[in-house]
Amino acid sequence: MTSEYAIESRGLSKHFGDLKAVSELDLKVPRGQIYGFLGPNGSGKSTTIRMLCGLLTPTEGSATVLGTEIPGNARYLKPKIGYMTQKFSLFGDMTVFENLQFMAEIYSSPRASRTARIDELLEKYDLVDQRRQLAATMSGGQKQRLALACAVLHHPELLLLDEPTSAVDPQSRRDFWANLFRLAEGGTTILVSTHYMDEAERCHRLAILDHGVKVADGTPQQLQANTGMHIIEVLADDPYRAQEALDDGDEIASVTQLGMRLRVLIPVQIEDPLGKVKGLLNGHGVQAEVRTTTASLEDVFVAVTMGTEGHDA
Amino acid sequence: MKSLHRLLAITKKEVRQLSRDRLTFGMIVGIPVMQMLLFGYAINTDVRNLRTAISDQADTHLSRQFIAELRETQVVDIVAYVTTPAELEEQLRMGEVSVGVAIPADFDRRVIDPERPAVHLLVDGSDPTISGVANQLRNMPIAFDTSAAMRRSNNIEVRPSYNPERRTPVNIIPGLMGVILTLTMMLFTAVAIVRERERGNLELLINTPVSSAELMIGKVLPYIVIGMIQLALILVVGDVLFQVPMRGSVLDLYLASGAFIAANLSLGLVISTVAKTQFQAMQMTFFVLMPSILLSGFVFPFDGMPKFAQYLGEMLPVTHYIRLTRGIMLRDAALIELYPELIALGVFTLLAMTGAALRFTKRLD
Predict the structure, then answer these.
(1) CATH code for position A106
(2) Do A85 and B13 touch (CB under 8 A)?
(3) What is the phi/psi pair of residue A263, to 5°?
(4) Which residues on B lie below 8 Å from A90 (Cβ)?
């Protein structure tokens, strides 16, 4: 019997001494989807991933991962998951082929099809020319593709990727995500942590973590539709003075500068937000164009993490 | 079957990495050869040619005969003749000589008087070995009739059974085998595992189906072979350069060495579960290595140590191994006769392995 969820966690918590790295996390990760963990460094993304694959024992709570109870018999889980660490963790003094061969042996992949499988992966992840190259001498993007190839070699049902793109250039990131979508289409569930907004936007669903607490989850569209904020864009000749003017407004939740533009967040219960912003700007004699707009994921992130960090205005 | 395949995959990877690590590879051969040359040629407890000054105030036929005999012993090398005992002391203090021989003016009369010593030896006591050697000179017969005196002084004859020429390398090399294997085996295993933790490889490995036992045994296997290669190297160099005898059975020696290597590898595993960095692993290895050199009977005779130091020594695998190697190589003892040492090594391995297995978990917390 298989549940419709690859991962279901209930009140999962991890404390390191006084530090609550993860607090009472409830997660439901549907099968065959790319599920994102969005959050700044130290928000508990890595700790959660490590708990889900049995590397860390939860202080409280539990999870069911591919039908296996965590904490408990994580070893039944190991053959079914692929894991990519934040830091490159393959063997730098072995070649690309040797690394893949080693992983194939460790996962007891069938001997007859082993070489064929490795060739297929080299082809798929564009590593054919690097076949005999020592892993340590490769570029960041190549290392990352090798790590992904090793993680998927044994056809895992679940892929856990811990900030996989933190050390690669934008083009490699795009290619990497194309690979992830291909895997998801093939039925693999993917849990990926990131602190890039554009990556989070690509996920089917995502959870935003802040200081170990899940502050929001849903599809990117749901999250953007339910920020609980009016989003107002201000185009000013002097954005600095405009920001000063807006800082006086008590009802303004947050002001973020993006070049010449300011993004202003005002809670939905405030009426006529546009008029409020215009009033403040006119009061300080600032010339500006003001219009309402739709929320970006960045706005969502700012809105949901305000409770824990206090607002910037 | 799967388990065995995983274990062999780890071993294969380890050998492959080892063959690319020139430094470690060099150490496998370099450490034993270097240490053997150093210890074999530098350490010599059978001291000869001590620099000696003589003050002969008697200057008689008998005193000159005595000096000639002294020179013949080859224990001393007479480098200076001075006039007064005070000058002897000065030479000694300045470090010019290690021994001063003072022959008083009434030497001839003292020789026939058993109550009074005929000669005074001034010895540099700051080096215990030198004063020990100079003590041998006390037994030298001095009389007008030398042969009569010889008969009298030979009440007890010492027969050095297994090393009649008293060559130090014969004693040092079997002990050195223990010290070299302690250093390399412990260091290699400890570093091999800690390095993977440092580089992050371990986080990847423990997320695969590899079990702790497969990982540990797989990593350690190549080093057992390396230990055996080092042993062969030591035996060959010991035979060629120092003519160290191999009186017992080579098979016995290899069996004993197997037990000893197992003990050291398990200790290396324990270290690897405690140390966070390669540097820490190295420090901990030397923490064990120093007592292994000093308290094992390798350099200083075990029986001469204080009781407390002896107890500490008994806890070190190398102490038992040195008894085994000296027994097998020098005294032609059979392994079975030395069984208490084997049992000690076995118990040690068992305890260390249990400790390592308990500490090494497939988790990060």
Answers:
(1) 3.40.50.300
(2) no
(3) -110, 125
(4) 201, 204
